Amino acid sequence: MFDFFKAKPPKSGRAATTTPAAAAPTSTRQHTHIQRELVRVVLKDTLRQHGVPAGWIGCEVLVAPKRVSDEDLIVQLVILKWNDALLRYAPALERQLLLDLDRFDPTVNHSKYMVSWRFAPDCGCPLMEMPDPKYWAQAAHPVPAPEPVAILDRRRSRRPKRPEKPDLPGPAYDDSPQNFAPTKLSPLR
């Protein structure tokens, strides 16, 4: 009844040494499907670890065939909800995603994956027009970095500067308290 599960010898006299052409792409397609799902799961985990809401970024995994048995994956991260801070940390998020893929599946070389970014039409980006060309000249000037806080300083913010004493002539400015009497020394007993 289940004879089709049994392997039958080839009808010709020589043994088949190569895999049929139809079987190779199926295994490659199955491997690609597994890699796609792995990228989606690891992206969700990476977003969760770093506190980014899952609805802000989506993922599409595309296949770029190179040869019959070799394929590159293109990971396209889709911005679903606009956030300025998210774009500032986009390179760090991309790097963390590839590191997490390496951690989750070390047998695959994920450094060959191509990562691209795309914006959903309804992501809520407030900047829909290009700025005046002068904007780019102003943006080219670097903003000075904030002064580093000393290692032993545990405050969250810097102390305000001390107010300088006014430069007044001697008699008009006297910083000694009124009715000051010097301390009297008493003899030791």
Q: Layout of SSEs?
A:
Elements: H1 23-49, E1 57-65, E2 71-79, H2 84-88, H3 90-104, E3 114-119, H4 133-139
Parallel strand pairs: 2-3
Antiparallel strand pairs: 1-2
Helix pairs in contact: 1-3
What does this structure look like?
It is a single chain. The longest helix is centred in the first third of the chain and has 27 residues, at about 25-50. The protein has helices spanning about 25-50, 85-90, 90-105, 135-140; strands at about 55-65, 70-80, 115-120. It starts with about 20 loop residues before the first helix and ends in a 50-residue tail after the last helix. It is an alpha+beta fold. Helix 1 packs across helix 3 (about 90-105). About 30% of the residues lie in helices and about 15% in strands. The chain is elongated and about 100 Å long. The protein has a domain at about 25-125: K homology (KH) domain (GMP Synthetase, Chain A, domain 3). It contains 4 helices and 3 strands; from the N terminus they run αββααβα. Residues about 15-25 have low confidence and may be disordered. Strands 1-2-3 form a 3-stranded mixed β-sheet, with helices on one face.
